[in-house]
Amino acid sequence: MRSVTKGLSLDEKVVAERFYGRIGEPDAVNVRNIIGVVDAHADDYFSSRELEDVAYIFRDGEAFFVIYGIGGNVTKEGERPDVDVMVVTNMRYDAGFSSYDYPIGETSLEEAFRRGNFVEPLWSSLYLNLASKMIVEREGSLPDNYNLGVTQGKCLIRLTPKNGTRKIDLVYVKSMKFHGDADSDEPGQVENITTTPSIDPKKYFFRSHAEFLTKDVGEDGASLPKVLLYYARTDDIKQLRWQW
């Protein structure tokens, strides 16, 4: 059994409840549904062998999932037109991320599943578990090691509840880096990547939640406003002998 740490401190719980009170109970129920999906996915991931298969990625770090309340409901007064949340993870799969999306030309997850294509795991979990209650739309590409210069390690998932409550903009952030960099999964295997020269790939790679926090900053270097709603982590990741 892997050792996993979950939950918020008492102070964090107080701030989280303040956020839920601000958005109101109907919207809070929707956010808690999202948290439930991510929590179940985290449990599946932490109990899998994927962590050992890519243990070198987490050397001196941890695997984690966190969810924050962000946006106007944190920084502004008055009623806001929507609810903004952010899901952050550094989960990695042995097969990588680039093959876990439906190919160009396929417009639905159902079609991807019918053809037997792999779908990015957390996006798949969100879609399959929430589609009965919400219209689930993804704006832009899911970030992977090949499109970091385009996605900058994140994408937007728009959730429109079918019960008439406010839509939710979910920013999905993943730890990513360019293939072929010094800390790449496959050192020496350099790909032809066209990217914006100003993109610093190290800005979007983090081995821990603490490291993510040092990079989630504004132009002035100050931490961006956010309210922690969910936290799960493990550093109980054993190196396989062939990885030594």
Looking at this protein, list some descriptive labels.
244 residues, alpha+beta, 7-stranded mixed sheet, 7 strands, globular
Describe the structure.
By secondary structure, this protein is α+β, with helices and mostly antiparallel strands. The chain has one domain (5-237). It has eight helices and seven strands. It has helices at 10-23, 25-46, 50-53, 72-75, 109-114, 121-130, 148-151, 209-215; strands at 5-6, 63-70, 83-89, 134-139, 154-161, 168-174, 227-234. It has a seven-stranded mixed beta sheet. Strand 5 and strand 6 form a beta hairpin. The chain starts with a strand and ends in a 10-residue tail after the last strand. 30% of the residues are buried.
How many strands appear in the DSSP assignment? Answer: 7
Strand order, main sheet: write it out: 1-7-2-3-6-5-4
Roughly what fraction of the amino acids lie in strands? 15-25%
Radius of gyration: 18 Å
Q: List the helices and strands in order.
A: EHHHEHEHHEHEEHE
What are the SSEs and their pairings?
Blueprint: E1 5-6, H1 10-23, H2 25-46, H3 50-53, E2 63-70, H4 72-75, E3 83-89, H5 109-114, H6 121-130, E4 134-139, H7 148-151, E5 154-161, E6 168-174, H8 209-215, E7 227-234
Helix pairs in contact: 2-6
Short description:
This protein is an alpha+beta fold. 29% of the residues lie in helices and 19% in strands.
